[in-house]
Amino acid sequence: MSGITYIKRASQLITIRGGTKEPKRAQDMSDIGIIEHGSVVVENGLITFVGSDVEAERYVHTLNGHINTIDASGKIVTPGLIDAHTHIVFGGSREKELEMRLNGAKYIDILKAGGGILQTTSTREATEEQLIQETSKRLNRFLQYGVTTVEAKSGYGLTLEDELKQLRAAKKLNEKHPVDLVSTFMGAHAVPVEYKENPDEFVRLVIEEMIPRVAEENLAEFCDVFCEEGVFTVEQSEQILEAGKVYGLKPKIHADEIVQFGGAELAAKVGAVSADHLLQASDEGIKQMAKSGVIAVLLPGTAFFLMEKPANARKMIEAGVPVALSTDRNPGSSPTESLPFIMNLACLTMKMTPAEVLTACTINAAHAIGRADEVGSIEVGKKGDLVLFDAPNYQTLQYNYAVNLVDTVIKKGQVIVEGGALRDVPVPTT
Ligand code: NIG
Ligand code: FE
């Protein structure tokens, strides 16, 4: 990543500065560090200057070598967006579920009947190479929406080898695709049909065989579990997350999505980095999350797609819980890569403000995946991951809904998307 990239004359540079040590909470989520008429310089992939156009001109004069200058007049510049919760690596598709749900079937009942996540075990039939090819296309779309870092969970293989295959695909994509991936092991995503009569035996498999291998091969940083009525109990979830901790996997949890189940409380108890979904989280659970510093990763696109009432973001922000937002990109409850649309939904369905959603998709999302020291804000020393949106101010981004205003995406100083179109991105192979 050599070279100098100079982005100048942004109508607003949205730095999101000041949240690297701790995620932003409460009123701090609205402090997005705007520099009017601002510039950024990236050298060898890292940000070396952030400031006003006037100061930038002086700084740039001191530099030697070719400078790629990008004029951001009339545009805002934000940090590369971060998606802190996806199930992006999978095989097969589940489009029939929409008609089933429109005819009255419930998401959880489709799963209990052996469909849903259990149908995506068609991932077992895909080779690692096929998973890489399919996932590359999804990552390319993420880039076009301004997303430069994504978290990726396993959980569609549900056998030792198939879980490893998903995680190995994510690892190779991280090495070869411009988007950075952060992996989460989620073997406890559903109880596979072959263990239907003996779910505890599957929990044992996850704890005693899968977690040690995932850690041994260094395939994940986090461990997640679908803690939900009819899926994994609070006790089973706790056992799995504690076992993950022993192997250095930091806990995350799909909590209180469908029924109020004690997931938020468990997140606080095990010291989870994040608790995600939280549509039904209790007041006590929210209070405990705030106290323990658990990040709420909210997924309003999932609520929208499943036609449910979204999480109570305002209550969480007021309680002092740091909030992040994500697509939850997966084949069943949220088939979209459009993080900007999720930001729109956060405003329109959860009453988050345009400033709060920017914090939620940048620095707070970076904290939710352990990358706040590298990405999530435009500050000296961080990666040169930047997005130019065709909007004169940050409010315009949320006012135009379901419209892709991404003009340019810069990854570690390199232009990857130009005029809204992807430059040649090589499709990684195994
Ligand atoms: O986060 N809730 C559990 N897991 C995913 C859905 C996965 C799927 O339906 O394939 C979620 O919504
Ligand atoms: Fe999920």
Overview of the structural elements:
With 430 residues, the protein is an alpha/beta fold. Helices cover 35% and strands 22% of the residues. The strands form two sheets. Strands 1, 2, 3, 4, 5, 14, 15, 16 and 17 form a nine-stranded mixed sheet that branches. An eight-stranded parallel sheet has the order 6-7-8-9-10-11-12-13. Strand 2 and strand 3 form a beta hairpin. Helix 6 runs parallel beside helix 7. The structure holds N-(iminomethyl)-L-glutamic acid and fe (iii) ion. The site of fe (iii) ion (FE) has 5 residues, from loops.
Q: How far do the termini sit from each other?
A: 23 Å
| Average pLDDT metric | 97
Q: What small molecules accompany the polymer chains?
A: N-(iminomethyl)-L-glutamic acid, fe (iii) ion
Task: Specify the number of helices.
Answer: 15
The helicity comes to 25-40%
Shape: globular
| Assembly form of the protein | single chain
The Rg value, from CA coordinates, equals 21 Å
Count of β-strands: 17
Q: By helix and strand content, what is the structural category?
A: alpha/beta
For the largest beta-sheet, the strand count, sense and barrel status come to: 9 strands, mixed
